[in-house]
Amino acid sequence: MIGYLTKKIFGSRNDRYLKTLLPTVARINALEKEMQALSDAEIPARFAGYREEVAAGREFESLLPEVFALTREASRRVLGMRHFDVQLMGGMILHQGKIAEMKTGEGKTLVATLPVVLNALSGKGVHVVTVNDYLARRDAAWMGQLYTFMGLTVGVIVHGLSDAERQEAYGADVTYGTNNEFGFDYLRDNMKFYKHQLVQRPLNFAIVDEVDSILIDEARTPLIISGPGEKSTTLYARVNSIIPRLTRDDHFTIDEKARTVVLTDEGVVHCEEILGVTNLFDPANITLQHHILQALRAHYLFTLDDHYIVKDGQVVIVDEFTGRLMPGRRFSDGLHQALEAKEGVKVEAENQTLASITFQNFFRMYKKLSGMTGTADTEAVEFQQIYGLEVVVAPPNKQMVRKDFPDVILKTQAEKFGAIVEEIKGLHAKGQPVLVGTTSIEKSEYISTLLKKKGVPHEVLNAKYHEKEAEIVAMAGQKGRVTIATNMAGRGTDIVLGEGVRELGGLHILGSERHESRRIDNQLRGRAGRQGDPGSSRFYLALDDTLMRLFGSERIAGIMEKLGLEDGQTIENPLISRSIENAQKRVEGHNFEIRKQLIDYDNVMNQQREVIYSLRREFMIAEDLQPTVEEFVDDLLSQVYEPLDNRKGQAESLEEARGMIRSKLDEIFAMERMAPGGKFMEKEEARAAILSVLEEHRSLAPDQYQEILRFFLLDALDRNWKDHLLQMDYLKEGIGLRGYAQRDPKQEYKREGFELFEDLIFRIRENTMKALTHLRIEAVKQEELKHEEQEDVKYVGGNEPADKKPDTVRRVDPKVGRNDPCPCGSGQKYKKCCGKLA
């Protein structure tokens, strides 16, 4: 009550914030005549002057009114578009590192130009992040005219570019691209060997378009770079063949809310009989049990043309929020292979993770982050808690006049689709355009089939026809047009009303069911009523819709029973609509908790990733790596000599400790060659001997010495980081079981993850020094080397060009047999590792 009264008297926080922007808007407007008086040549000259001032130390924040006024004038001349006052406010919201919620048709693409130009003054680069390649190209070309006119350079990052093209695009003042491309380039950069191969600059400022789609909907999808694993794929087909012999409820149960499958006791016994194993829960059969559960999930929780499609003999994921295809992405943990076995296509080998990051952690690395969308307010708490981003609802330029009609509720799916088709038919007959929103490809095609029977012409827009997306959506507002779309609904493309449509009531949005998230429903509604245009929306629901069935309270069913709803009868009841919205809120809360839990776990991995990638960048860029290697020597020697330092003074324990140390020194540092005959060395003697080996390397290959160190440091780091990622995956998979021992799984994950990380750091040091002290160098003539067969050197990303090898160095160890384990610690035979370069 007190909060309500405070809001009434003082206005909401949002209102108060917007009022603080008004004086700056007035200052920008006051500069308009001055900017209009400039010639075309004087505009870029004026901007260049601002750049010089910033380079000389002036804060570009203080130049906001001048830069915004200059950008508005440049836009008027080049694009024929003048920023409205509310767009100036939107630009300030973005510049201040907040999320601007602006209704559809308010010109978010144009709004972004204001903070982009202002922040480009720093010379550190500005990234504009879009949801697909089409929008990245379109916006870069469209707004690029304005930037080029002002003297800025523009780049665009899309799929299929070479590293040289990416370097050029990232080096521009303004870079457009998709969230996937920015994230994968970050990971790829942290797999490169030389600094000249890096494509990205430090992450400075990003404006994320459709920020809710990228930071909320995509938050649970990690970006993963992987390489082929070594496991056989035959088990997937074998397990898939037994699924028809298992009966739901008798042999397994399904929790559709949690999207999990559990075998019953009878199901376990039945599987053991079919597969011929005595105990499915034996540790030796844990993989088999996992395959059975994933196969059941593939058959009962993942539907063709809903969660995925089969295209060109491959299972391709369909994004559940946008309806777009996601080629190249694969479900993890064997689920994708289970789907391939289910659909009878080739089962691809499982991949091993080489590098990964979630969008949550990638975008939090930017020095400043902001975003814009038409629907963010319902997720304001999550944006604040996870990203520290405040959501500000910007006022519209023209008041929205769209009519949102109450939901229509029917008993069954068949009745609901029948009513939908009748409404579409009626609206089409009078010429009013209709955009039908569906939650899956299957339902969009079902409605299409029904409309064909009724003779209603229409267009279908789903993941199967996404190439024509922009064209189809742009035409959806023409007279008599019927467009059926999945949730993608052409985000980022304006639907302009055709001639005579305003008089008919504008575009009508027809939702075929409610989505789990109110925000997705609002996005669909937002396709109508742009810039003060007329429009309307209505959702049709059935009691057996997924949302109603899983999350609708018993109260809804009770109300329907009391109303005595008959077959085919429709009802519009605000009480039921409110109950449905409450169900959506519960689902949103549930999904938020899942994302929060994900980031709690991923934060552990992220801290480790930051340390490793920082260390890796240091190895790659440092001119002198000798101090790093000497630090490795000191740390390893401290651990090796620890038994001697901790001895209690007894002669037996002293001799035993010395024996352990001799053995460890020889294992890590090849000490036998430095102290033959088993002579014991004190720590300082050992240090001097190791450094003398390194000094010998330097004297034999003075010009290549730093590159030799760099190669072995990066090789050891990459090899062990890859193995560490696999270990962390295994740890995460089983950590939930700690709860049975009354332990907090998250705390256990942190503790055990830290122990694994400490071991990782030790193994990087150990493997580096093993390789360097077992190394033999022969100086060879450059001409000789040119005629040698150059073989690729493997690193984390697979086979990389031979320029990774120190180019006038051979590795030789005459004491090691060709079939012996390689002394560098790789785990491979000598002939396949260092021996092949000998």
From TrEMBL:
Cofactor requirements of the protein: Zn(2+)
GO CC, alphabetical: cell envelope Sec protein transport complex; cytosol; plasma membrane
Compartments where located: Cell inner membrane; Cytoplasm; Cell membrane
InterPro entries: Helicase_ATP-bd, Helicase_C-like, P-loop_NTPase, SEC_C_motif, SecA, SecA_CS, SecA_DEAD, SecA_motor_DEAD
Enzyme class: translocase
Gene Ontology MF: a single term: ATP binding
Protein name per Swiss-Prot or TrEMBL: Protein translocase subunit SecA
Protein family per UniProt: Belongs to the SecA family.
E.C. designation(s): 7.4.2.8
CDD domains, sorted: DEXDc_SecA, SF2_C_secA
